[in-house]
Amino acid sequence: MLKKDLRKKYKELRNQLSEDAIVDKSLAIANRMLQLNIWEKTYYHLFLTIEEQREIDTEFVLQILAGKDKEIVVSKSDFDTFEMTHFLLTDNTKFKTNSYHIPEPVNGLEVPVEKIEVVFVPLLAFDSEGHRVGYGKGFYDKFLSKCNDDVIKIGLSFFEAEKVISDVTENDVKLDFCVTPDKNYTF
Question: What is the mean pLDDT of residues 41-63?
Answer without folding.
Answer: 95
